[in-house]
Structures
1.
Amino acid sequence: MIQDIGNSFFDNQFRNAAPAPSDTVFCFRDNLLLTNAEDPRHYPTLEDVEKAAPGGEYVYLFAVDDRRFFLRRGESGLELEGYDYLRVNMMSAVGERRDALAAATGLHLYRWYRDNRVCGRCGTPTVHAPEERMLRCPQCGNMIFPKICPAVIVGVVNGDSILLTSRAGGRAGHYALVSGFTEIGESMERTVEREVMEECGIKVTNVRYYKSQPWGFSGDALMGFYCDAVNTDISVDEKELSRAEWVRREDIPVTNAGLSLTEEMIQRFRQRGPEGLLPAD
């Protein structure tokens, strides 16, 4: 999955640090990230960016091994010769997983900084706390931390079949699992039960946790669960799904488990069946 970066180490601890000329700088334009036009795995350095547009404001993001990443704030879209803007979710198709993890997490933090330039309580411009990743209102003292949205991915099992879905308006021919966000006052297990009933009209039992993953592309913390179907008749919520169907193990398309928890859960069921789903490894 996206966080599985082998022997590399993702260090998300905040540091009150200034960038050095060779440090990597992320420059965003909405959901687009400035990257090398010929090799999207390469991002500009502080030296590159400051030559094109000196005097930027930078904030430390994280490090991958000994490579430090910074965000250039307050830009609607810096132009840099030899670089172009690429949609961040396309980073999953190029480079290594650590590149995709860095791009997705950078996007997550960029949106948080962008959306909290002023205090939601009193409207005063916020400032960054020097000791941790927090924005503070100097007027009323409001403390703002990065927003992470909990959501579930659900593998609903019926014997040797699993419930596969396609999102309404999603990629044609692409299989997914039931998914949804946790609501206020709701446990993760209750989210599983509610989402499967709402989207497919199926009651479930034996809800068991599988694995989690960060998903910075949309600012989520995804939690994967398997569960068993009580009834098998499907009633599709067409506002959420274009289709939902029971698919036998042998009919599941073989794909690379790739970056997503969804793909890993589908392929794990294809390979191991209902008796080999847990524990996660």
2.
Amino acid sequence: MSRSPADLLAAALSAAVLAAVPGVAPDAVAQEAQGPRPTLRDLGRAPGVLSPGLLNAITDVAGVKVGQVTLRSGDSVRTGVTAVLPHGGDLFRDKVPAGLSVANGFGKLAGATQIRELGEIETPIVLTNTLSVARGVDGILDWTLKQPGHEDIRSVNAVVGETNDGGLNDIRARVVTAADVVRAIETATPGPVEQGAVGAGTGTIAFGFKGGIGTSSRRLPARLGGFTVGVLVQSNFGGALSIDGAPVGVRLGRYYLREEVEKERADGSIMIVVATDAPLSDRNLERLANRAFAGLARTGAAFSNGSGDYAIAFSTAEGVRRTPERRAGQATVADWPNDRMSPLFVAVAEATEEAILNSLLKARTTTSVIDGETVTVEALDIEAVKAVLGAGR
């Protein structure tokens, strides 16, 4: 991907400013100087048959907002928080229907049982690292309880997902605070979503390469409902990377079960957050979440014993929102029929696949010191990827 002199100058200036900030990790300065990395579509690839939304992001679903706090300092802090808000109103009062799917349950998803039992979400969805789930819950509670009109609340089902970034982050230091979580929620916006080694993806690893936060969306044509499906992922798992059908991991010699590279493990996790404006029941949202794993499989995931593979899906449609009035008694609620769900299933699989690939392509090489040893996890080599894609399957 060519870069203009203006881009190079802007990157250099940004790096200089960053270098002057106390506590900022040296590799963060180096990364800033490198300039932007490509998305999958920048490489001329677009998995599937459906078109993306305007931003090709989860925020293409109207009302959805994303906020991120990246914590990168010293030799070993490489972590953060990513928050997804289903809508910009009172999330606790106007709950959204939701479904949860678990492909492998080696994880710590706070709030999961109430999603399963009631089929709804009443808080932001927060992603962070494994040992910071409690801080995520604290942050959600701090933010929710202080909202106007919440003075009588005595129970909140905070939803916090995680992946383990201990390979690049001093996870035992537990540097994420409740204030960081609140900041991610309060700075959430409905616009473009930063991808790669940011937020909850700052220290993650996927397929042996640097992983991170990725996003994508699909929009159905009017004849199929005209709905949008958006996906955001936190990638931190293993397998044999496939990009749009091309065996990139195998061709680059980095993949799970390769005898020569015993360290290439498939353990880790992925959090998949799915948003749609289709008027779906919690039952059909669970079905939609199930199909997200089709997209995960297409990337070459191993679904290993040590991986926590979770998908949460929610609907923002006004016709299904669980308002106080609807919860007070019998109500008429919109319900998209089973027989018209299949296009949405295709959309979520395609968007999940692309979101995962974007999380790797946008991530940058990251260096840290873990247990006294310097660890470097390389980002995908873009030129090498281009070569594999150009060689065909």
3.
Amino acid sequence: MKVAIVDDHQLFRKSLAHLLNSFDDIDVVFQANNGKEFLNCIDQIQIDLVLLDIQMPEMDGFQTCRVLRDKYPNIYILIISQLTTKESIHRVMELGAHGFFTKNSDPDQLQNAIVSIKENGYYFGNELGSIIREVMLWEKKNSMNVEEDLEIDENCLTTREIEIIKLVSNGRSSKEISEILNINVRTVETHRKHIMEKTNSKNFIGVVVFALKHQLIALDEM
């Protein structure tokens, strides 16, 4: 995968690039100090995945994520930040980032995060499970996404689709799911596409959060 790193801390950025380049099949091809600098050059380079900080000068991670999802939907976005408040996690999910990795996490887990995004379409570290629960409670308390909940009926999902959500949330790839359910990999991918459409989700993080909110899966099943 061709990877870009967008973070205003030069020492962290260069150390992260060195770590990523040590992984198999991962090549850091671009580094930027902020979102504006990155977006100004994005058309000149091929990028599969961007590791994006939240707190940056000129153009922060939230603004950059919004532009990327609107104009470059094929680029995977992994947020890497020390900001883990309920509000920030909610905004990350709402904007459609494909994963969240805290700067306090074990560096060895970063390769797993990237592989998970490539194979499953999303990644959330295990340490964020409790935060996701708090985010959902916070959303309910603040009456967020009420309109969305009224428009989407959890009963629109079939038993097979819920089964696939559970398997994906448990870290299973499409190939593994196809073997478990004895169906074609392409069929699994079709199911995943339909699930995202039915739940009005930008990616599978949104699907998993939807399933958690409607109690179709439990956090301890992830």
4.
Amino acid sequence: MAAKKNEAKIHGRDNALNKFQDYLGEFVYGGIDGSVTTFAVVAGAAGANLESSVVIILGFANLIADGFSMSVGSYLSTKSEIQNYEKHKKIEYWEVDHLPEKEKEEIREIYADKGFEGELLEKVVDTITANKDRWVDVMMKEELEMSEESRSPIKMAATTFISFLILGFIPLFIYILDYFVPLGENINLFLVSSTLTTLVFMGIGFLKSYVTQTNHLRGILETLLLGGIAAILAYFVGDILEQLFIS
């Protein structure tokens, strides 16, 4: 029991986020894209000196359209992986049924490469090939290097969409607040939005480092850097376009 706990700790599976592990990566992926693209819209609008109402319209258009597009992509990608796995699994079952000696030899070669030999090798081959399901499962993992996708395409899409909406909404929050409750000219809306978005980037960077099991500080700095570059580019594009078409 202690050994299993230690192994779980090493692989990062022993904390409160464990039950969300299967979908956490998708949440991070959707959150990064949602916050970065929405803040890029905000930055571009700020560079063009657009009013809060315009920022809100552009921001929400991006949230809904881009978020839905990403969720559809996530759904189709996951479903495609499942279908591809099932297709190859059917092929392996056919080969086991119609070409058993060839498939048995492949099992022998796989485990011979792992260092098994002689009587032990034959026992391993006989044990595996004694059960068709086990036989096919080994062929899928060892020969084709394919693992069965256990995550639901619908849940993957929903996770992406929800993450995109929630985290992508944060850069817009201060503009929405200002629209309904004017905050006055002394409040720099873009600065407040930048601060809130920076906090979001830091949180996403931390979660990304958890998913990839890498250094937390590095994950945070990478996300801040990428988000910052996107925002700077959008801001100056907005500023240039404002000078060309509005000024």
